[in-house]
Write a structure and sequence with these properties.
0% strand; globular; 301 residues; mainly alpha; 74% helix
Length: 301
């Protein structure tokens, strides 16, 4: 006879199965997930199929329209636009994922500490309010101006700029996650199972890791999906304004900036990076909406 599963595993498996069913019923979320998966495959697997070098300049083929050799056309230096869109997507999505991870990690840490320890609640929430009151875009521009050259000299232009952009976006976008997590922790720490664990001598670290964090996973996941979209838009805005990666590194924002000069003569150059940004952000936002509804027991009922 097969060994029976632990009783605690059955409700958890059933819960995640019901979450998946609710997510699959959300047509927008399901379509968004499929679209985002397609974009990831096109960006990270596509260069293995379309092997043209995104930085190779062929002046004889510059400013060409769509063709079998160049489906998205070429730019003013004869570089293949399709290859550059895929290369730019790798950088933009990597920045979005890394900045989201930093933002969610920092916001979760501050939210849990503020909710669990009353003596930290006031200072941490005042710090959160302070960051919420700052004008984020000017702050990001100042950070890029102050630290870009030093980090580029220390780590190289691409790595230094990547670390700076990820740090700047992550350090200025953790506040909503912190406030959401804090509110959930304040409610959870008064629940019966947490009080029972505390009465049995569980340490604060064990309470957080075994009882608090698993039950605040739902809002963290929703914040993570929406954080990816915010980080991608912010990176594209910085690159568009000329404060992002160096001009020879293709990102979606940099491609948009380069294409605006030739907007009247070659308007299709703006379409491809703009469409990539729009589809990515829309798909991630729909995924966040679907996750929020699927993880809410009242919505599932």
């Amino acid at each position: 006879m097969p060994e029976p599963r632990p009783p605690s595993a059955v409700p958890a498996l059933s819960r995640w199965r019901s979450v998946w069913k609710a997510f699959a019923r959300h047509r927008g979320a399901l379509l968004g997930g499929i679209t985002f998966l397609f974009i990831l495959l096109a960006v990270f697997i596509g260069p293995l199929v379309w092997t043209l070098d995104p930085g190779f300049a062929d002046l004889r083929a510059r400013n060409q329209g769509a063709s079998w050799a160049h489906p998205f056309g070429t730019d003013n230096l004869g570089r293949d636009t399709l290859a550059r869109v895929m290369a730019g997507g790798q950088i933009s999505i990597s920045v979005g994922l890394a900045a989201m991870a930093l933002s969610i990690g920092l916001g979760t840490l501050i939210g849990v500490l503020a909710g669990m320890f009353g003596w930290l609640d006031g200072p941490l929430m005042r710090l959160t309010d302070l960051f919420l009151s700052l004008p984020l875009l000017p702050l990001l521009l100042v950070m890029m101006l102050l630290f870009n050259e030093s980090l580029s000299a220390l780590m190289g232009p691409e790595t230094g700029t990547f670390v700076l952009i990820v740090s700047a976006i992550g350090l200025t976008s953790w506040m909503p996650t912190a406030r959401i997590v804090r509110g959930d922790v304040l409610a959870l720490k008064e629940r019966e199972f947490v009080l029972a664990a505390r009465s049995m001598g569980a340490s604060p670290a064990r309470l957080i890791t075994r009882h608090i964090l698993p039950n605040v996973l739902s809002p963290i996941l929703v914040s993570a999906t929406l954080g990816i979209a915010t980080a991608i838009i912010t990176e594209s805005a910085l690159s568009f304004l000329g404060f992002g990666f160096p001009p020879d590194f293709a990102t979606w924002g940099q491609l948009l900036k380069d294409a605006t000069i030739y907007l009247q003569d070659y308007p299709e150059r703006v379409i491809w990076p703009g469409l990539a940004i729009s589809l990515t952000v829309l798909s991630v936002n729909y995924m966040g909406d679907g996750l929020r509804d699927a993880l809410d027991p009242r919505a599932r009922r």
